[in-house]
Amino acid sequence: MMHVTTDFPAAAHEALGDKSLQAALARMRQGFVSGRASAVARLPEFDAYRDAARAIRDHTLAHLDAYLEIFEANVKAAGGQVHWCRDGAEARETILRILQSRGAKTIAKGKSMVGEEIELNAYLEANGVRPVETDLGEYIIQLRRETPSHIIAPATHVSKAQVADAFRAAHTLLPADRSLAEADTLLAEARAILREEFLNADAGMTGANFLIAETGTSVIVTNEGNGDLSQTVPRTHIVLAGIEKVVPTLDDAAVLLRVLARSATGQEISSYTTFSTGPARKDDLDGPGEYHVVMLDNGRSALLGSAFHDMLRCIRCGACLNHCPVYGAVGGHAYGSVYPGPMGSVLSPALAGIAAAKHLPHASSLCGACEQVCPVRIPLPKMLRAWRDVSFDRGLVTLRSRLGLAVWTFAARRPALYRLATALTAKTLQKHRAWFRLVPGLSGWLATRDFPASSGRTFMAEWKARR
Amino acid sequence: MLAVPPKNPSVALLVTCLVDLLRPQVGFAAVTLLERAGCKVSVPESQTCCGQPAYNSGDRADARKIARQVIETFAGFDYVVAPSGSCAGMVRIHFAEFFADDPVWAAKAMHLADRTYELTQFLTDVMGVAEVSAAHPGTAIYHDSCSGLRELGIKDQPRALLNTVNGLKTNDYSGSEACCGFGGTFCVKYPEVSDRIVGQRVTELAATPGDLLLGGDLGCLINLAGKLARTDSKLRVFHVAEILAGDAGPAIGEKS
Predict the structure, then answer these.
(1) Would strands A217-222 and A272-277 be described as parallel, antiparallel, or unpaired?
(2) Which residue is closest to B229 within chain A, CA to CA?
(3) Backbone angles phi, psi at A224, to 5 degrees
(4) Would an 8 Å CB–CB cutoff place B190 in contact with chain A?
(5) pLDDT tens digit sequence for A27-82
(6) Cβ–Cβ of A401/B56 closer than 8 Å?
(7) Distance (Å, rounded) from C-alpha A195 to C-alpha B62?
(8) What's the burial of A461, exposed, middle or buried (CB within 10 Å: 0-12/13-18/19+)?
(9) Which of A98, A216, B116, B127 would be B37's cystine partner, CB 3.0–4.6 Å?
(10) Is ipTM beyond 0.90?
């Protein structure tokens, strides 16, 4: 099971007071939202592509078993191997076994959210393998020993100065008095360090944006080219992917790629889109000697046919995070899961259990912006509500909200009593608004916002009097 | 929807719990607008609330009971109209979900859903109201409420009507389509996060020229007005119905 450490209310409180984080979030809110909007505006048929993308994902999920078997057969036909893993532990052990049997001591890693999900780096380190993250954002958070705060921009919460601090602390062989004030300088330094890592790595790992059944191909999109070096330079290439990542054909992948980059970064296509099929062939000039695909379930198959089935359509573009007012206010770490924001608040309870992730489905105003921008039209608000239903049924809601709700429902179901209660409340709101500071929940509102006075009479009373 | 709307349809006003409790004048403005459009307006006495607090808290059983109560209360009218996209959306979009296993009630829920509308949508799209007789000087910034905008597709209707108010210009701001942070029970559960979100809207509003801030949902409006009141903003906040009815008294938060 995936690990979450969520005390959302406390973490959100801390995040709201973190000035550096808030500055980073303000930049992020602006950049991603306007980027997507202009990319979408440049492609008038974007919504038709979304419908097509959704249909491809739905079709694949309806026949997931078949497409997974076709994918496996074609990976094998191309000379690769597929490893089926029920959970994170099996995936970690499988990867370690592959590495140890080849005597690998270091592994260059392209960005993989599934790697984060199964906490692979800590496991590899504990077992004598040094993982090197090669995506710049992932590299930064690896140095800072953090989890990602965004599924496509893992270090979006880190300021330039903090990156410089992390580099100074880690790159001790470089002159201590070098200037690291500019982004370009930081980038050049990371590039030089990582270049050596690529060349010296015993194995390489990537995630997969898609797996193509008809050819047994894994597809990655990056903007840094780091994934390409991770998967072509070392002797062994390991792909780590969730089982839902498969699509039937190359044509299908082309449709999904059209909506992915536009939704994620506002690009028409990412700088690098790389298709890997098996190990290097006899006459290939380069490429890995071995190609392994580690396929992770970790709770995904249990979602098939459930109230959360549609969540498996997700292509991890991050648009729902970028447009979420709650994510925009508190950032990713407050969610306590490597999958934050709306998609995370649906997925994390599924992968980690609702008891551990009980706050997350409530960490939303249900404004619907996520569903509005989702490239595969996942009804995220509906599924957040579905988790709230589960949470309520299992008694995971606080006594306070359960009691408040019970009192309100009791009155709402008895119109005469409701009239009396609202008439009294209206009077109190007119004369004694200060009392409302004593009501739990309302005190939080009144700390920073006014609450309007009432005229002292409800509409229903006034209407009765006038007519 | 009825194939051909009757000329003088019977309309039940779904007052909404917030209007009932906090701002009755919005209800009266809605009645004025509906009557001017030729509707025979009733206010069913046994109405309470649409059930969103239970629905959004995961209390399906109670939400379903309240939905049945709403369905019974509002049976027998040509239309049901609410001065709220959120409550109208609850009836139009969500009620049917409760009765997936009960064809009799599902039919009743869908029947009600088909004839339930948010006020400005009803006036323009059903009654064909093209202009209102009202005057108000100045520039109105419009805030689209999430449910109205994203569940019911309400965007042009209130602006079209407002543009016929004598002396009034409408304007959008960069946060017009963004959540204000109210979110019903959300603002009670996570007041600090809610406050940060409304703070962003207020900052955006400060950068936008305007005299009035209008919207179609009282929850969002008391949130925005409550936050604006703690700044030096001069914006006066009203429900769109009050301006359209030409019935603007004290703004939200102002002394009556």
Answers:
(1) antiparallel
(2) A450
(3) -120, -10
(4) yes
(5) 988 899 999 999 999 999 999 999 999 999 999 999 999 999 999 999 999 999 99
(6) no
(7) 61
(8) middle
(9) B127
(10) yes
Q: Where in chain B is the domain with CATH 3.40.50?
A: 130-244
Domains and CATH numbers, chain A: 8-301 (3.40.50.10420), 399-466 (no CATH)
Task: Please report how the helices A64-77 and A46-62 are oriented relative to each other, as an axis angle in degrees rounded to 10.
Answer: 90
| Both tokens assigned to A465 | 């009097």
| Euclidean distance between CA atoms B88 and B151, whole angstroms | 10
Q: In what order do the strands lie in the sheet with B212-215?
A: B166-171, B135-143, B212-215, B236-239
Closest CA to A123 of A168, A150, A87, A76: A87
Number of H helices, E strands in chain A: 21, 10
Q: Which CATH class is domain B130-244?
A: alpha beta
- Put simply, the answer to whether B181 touches A325 (Cβ < 8 Å) is yes
User: Who's near B143: CB < 8 A, 6+ residues apart?
Assistant: B173, B175, B176, B180, B201, B213, B214, B215, B220, B221, B224
Angle of CA points B71, B14, A390, to nearest 5°: 55
Chain B: nearest CA to A65, how far in angstroms?
29
End-to-end Cα, chain B, rounded Å:
39
* Per-residue pLDDT at B134 exceeds 90: yes
Cβ <8 Å between A392 and B229: no
Q: Which of residues 163-182 of B touch A (CB under 8 A)?
A: 178-179, 181-182
Taking the alpha carbons of A177, A182, A185, A188 in that order, is the dihedral positive or negative? Answer: positive
User: pLDDT (tens digit, 9 = 90+) per residue, A377-434?
Assistant: 999 999 999 999 999 999 998 888 899 899 999 999 999 999 999 999 999 888 887 7
Rounded to whole angstroms, the Cα distance separating B229 from A177 reads 51
Q: Decide if B215 contacts B147 (C-beta within 8 A).
A: no
Buried b (16+ CB within 10 A) or exposed e, A19-56: eebbebbeebbeebbebbeebbeeeeebeebbebbbeb
The answer to whether the Cβ–Cβ distance between B179 and A325 falls below 8 Å is yes
The answer to whether residue A351 scores a pLDDT higher than 90 is: yes
- Residue B51 tokens read as 């059930």
Q: Is the pLDDT of residue A437 over 80?
A: no
Q: How far apart are the first and last CA of chain A?
A: 62
